[in-house]
């Protein structure tokens, strides 16, 4: 039997249509903006992700949740009814990324850095002064 996580609820969220909902019981990392081509294609612009320990994430119900293997090292979880992109799950990673836009507010989060900026779109500039990583 799986161990029950009884930590206090840190955050809740879900997709646009409400078919996929989740609860996070544990630490929630501040948001990173990912500018890679895969995130930009999927999310229409750069993607903002918080992150948590997979053991702290409870997804229910899961019948509309689908996973798309976007590369050999990652899969992306989305709602098959409304298309909302919610999760990024890297193979072997100790955390799962949760799209910041899917979180219910107040999130208590801040955007703290930009990643994959070497793949950013050519139609915008990053000018908020936050750290940038390639
Ligand atoms: Zn949905």
Question: Can you give a write-up of this model?
Answer:
- The structure is a single chain.
- The protein is built from one helix and ten strands.
- It is mostly beta strands and 134 residues long.
- The protein has a single domain, classed as Metal Binding Protein, Guanine Nucleotide Exchange Factor, Chain A (Beta Complex).
- β8 (85-90) and β9 (96-99) form a beta hairpin.
- The protein is globular and about 45 Å long.
- The model has no long low-confidence stretch (mean pLDDT 95).
Task: Walk me through the topology.
Layout: E1 11-14, E2 21-24, E3 29-34, H1 37-43, E4 47-52, E5 57-59, E6 65-71, E7 74-79, E8 85-90, E9 96-99, E10 111-115
Parallel strand pairs: 3-10
Antiparallel strand pairs: 1-2, 2-5, 3-4, 4-9, 6-7, 7-8, 8-9
Bound molecules: zinc ion.
Zinc ion (ZN) binds at residues 15-17, 19-20, 64, 79, 81-82, 84.
What would the keywords be for this entry?
134 residues, mainly beta, Metal Binding Protein, Guanine Nucleotide Exchange Factor, Chain A, seven-stranded mixed β-sheet, globular, binds zinc ion, Mss4-like_sf, CENP-V/GFA, lyase, zinc, Aldehyde-activating protein
What is the count of structural domains? Answer: 1
Estimate percent helicity.
Answer: under 10%
Ligand identities:
zinc ion
Q: In the CATH scheme, what's the topology name?
A: Metal Binding Protein, Guanine Nucleotide Exchange Factor, Chain A
| Beta-strand content estimate | 35-45%
Give the overall shape.
globular
Mean pLDDT: 95
Number of helical segments?
1
Let me know the largest β-sheet: 7 strands, mixed
Domain CENP-V/GFA: 11-125
InterPro entries: CENP-V/GFA (IPR006913), Mss4-like_sf (IPR011057)
Family: Belongs to the Gfa family.
Protein name: Aldehyde-activating protein
